[in-house]
């Protein structure tokens, strides 16, 4: 066996051996070196599981073989894509391997310090293990966002379901929830399009969320969201159930678009913008709707000050929607990227928000729930998102 392969095998056995030793894992402040080492080794196993380690290694081998082909750069776009993916996966693999190696080195140093009664070396090694233990939790979180497009910015779309004003008000609440969530995370939020309801709320709206891993987190929100409350629009103070659908679309980088858009395939419609917009609104036909004739996909923007800016924004949304459609076609599983906004009704919801007769928010995919709906509606969504992402990856691994 080649030396490198032998070292990899020894490393794997060592980390698995630590987990197999069943060393008791105590709280950080109470634990000894074995407790810290066991917690770190356990985290490494979680990280590998979330990265789908076996698949990652197979994919790396395939990409390496592709990169070694003499005619690879005859197609620069394809070659660039292969090179980027190889570099990304190689970086993830090396980072985990280095973390494993660091754990084993610190364990060796502690054993050596004990043998030689070197209390200073032992203390330094214990501190290093404790730092690794804390770092491992961050690495577990990073491994949740290892999908091809997870690091991208995204569009979040919200559409009201059947139910008139009540559902439109709920759709506006959902959109505000995402704006607050994005701002909490330090993302930049831009309103792309908004169609207000006749009395209150919105019929639909789209925002752009700019920031690293915006899509990776927000994809957990794809689906139908259900609200149960006493309607503020019902004079009889009866309880109402409302639905709003959420779609999330990744914004791919310049070199990653899947679909070329031909101008001849577009129908561009200009109209007068409506709703709030200050002095400039409703005075010119500055709003733009672009229809991609072959697919029927549309994109609208009316929130910029000029027709030129609205057209540019609408084209960006259209490009993302067409890319998303192509990704779904290639993967043959559209639900990975977005969910149809046509089935906004009973039986399709992912999360229920109850404000009456009791107070609760429950995710129906993971059964995770909290009893403080106000905080959730104010943008405190991370616990729901992380719970779902973790469960999804665990399920994927179990099905392999």
UniProtKB/TrEMBL annotation:
Domain named Peptide chain release factor: residues: 111-221
Origin: domain of life: Eukaryota
One MF term in the entry's GO annotations: translation release factor activity, codon specific
GO cellular component terms attached to this protein's record: cytoplasm
InterPro entries, sorted: PCRF, Pep_chain_release_fac_I, Pep_chain_release_fac_I_sf, PrfB
SUPFAM superfamilies assigned: Release factor (SSF75620)
A Pfam family assignment: PCRF
Keywords: Protein biosynthesis
Family assignment from sequence similarity: Belongs to the prokaryotic/mitochondrial release factor family.
HAMAP family in UniProt: Rel_fac_2 (MF_00094)
Protein name per Swiss-Prot or TrEMBL: Peptide chain release factor class I/class II
Protein species of origin: Corchorus capsularis
């Amino acid at each position: 066996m080649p030396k490198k392969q032998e070292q990899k095998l020894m490393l794997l056995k060592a980390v698995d051996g630590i987990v197999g030793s069943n060393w008791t894992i105590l709280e950080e402040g109470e634990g000894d070196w074995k407790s810290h080492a066991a917690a770190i080794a356990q985290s490494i196993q979680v990280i590998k599981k979330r990265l789908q380690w076996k698949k990652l290694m197979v994919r790396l081998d395939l990409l390496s073989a592709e990169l070694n082909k003499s005619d690879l750069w005859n197609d620069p776009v394809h070659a660039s894509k292969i090179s980027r993916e190889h570099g990304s996966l190689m970086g993830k693999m090396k980072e985990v391997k280095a973390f494993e190696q660091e754990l084993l080195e610190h364990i060796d140093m502690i054993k050596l310090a004990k043998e030689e009664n070197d209390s200073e070396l032992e203390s330094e090694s214990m501190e290093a293990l404790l730092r690794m233990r804390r770092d491992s939790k961050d690495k577990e979180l990073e491994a949740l966002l290892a999908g091809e497009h997870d690091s991208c910015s995204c569009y979040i779309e919200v559409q009201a379901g059947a139910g008139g004003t009540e559902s439109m008000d709920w759709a506006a609440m959902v959109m505000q929830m995402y704006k607050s969530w994005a701002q909490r995370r330090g993302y930049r939020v831009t309103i792309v399009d908004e169609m207000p309801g006749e009395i209150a709320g919105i019929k639909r709206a789209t925002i752009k969320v700019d920031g690293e891993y915006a899509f990776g987190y927000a994809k957990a929100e794809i689906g139908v969201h259900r609200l149960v409350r006493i309607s503020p629009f019902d004079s009889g103070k009866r309880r109402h159930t409302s639905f709003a659908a959420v779609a999330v679309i990744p914004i791919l980088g310049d070199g990653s678009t899947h679909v070329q858009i031909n101008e001849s395939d577009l129908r561009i419609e200009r109209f007068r913008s409506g709703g709030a917009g200050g002095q400039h609104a409703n005075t010119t036909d500055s709003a733009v709707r672009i229809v991609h004739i072959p697919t029927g996909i549309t994109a609208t923007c009316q929130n910029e000050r000029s027709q030129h800016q609205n057209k540019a924004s609408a084209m960006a949304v259209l490009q993302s929607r067409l890319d998303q459609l192509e990704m779904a076609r290639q993967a043959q599983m559209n639900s990975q990227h977005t969910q149809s906004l046509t089935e906004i009704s009973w039986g399709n919801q992912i999360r229920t928000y109850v404000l009456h007769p009791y107070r609760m928010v429950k995710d129906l995919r993971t059964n995770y729930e909290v009893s403080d709906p106000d905080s959730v509606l104010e943008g405190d969504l991370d616990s729901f998102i992380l719970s779902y992402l973790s469960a999804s990856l665990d399920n994927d691994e179990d099905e392999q």
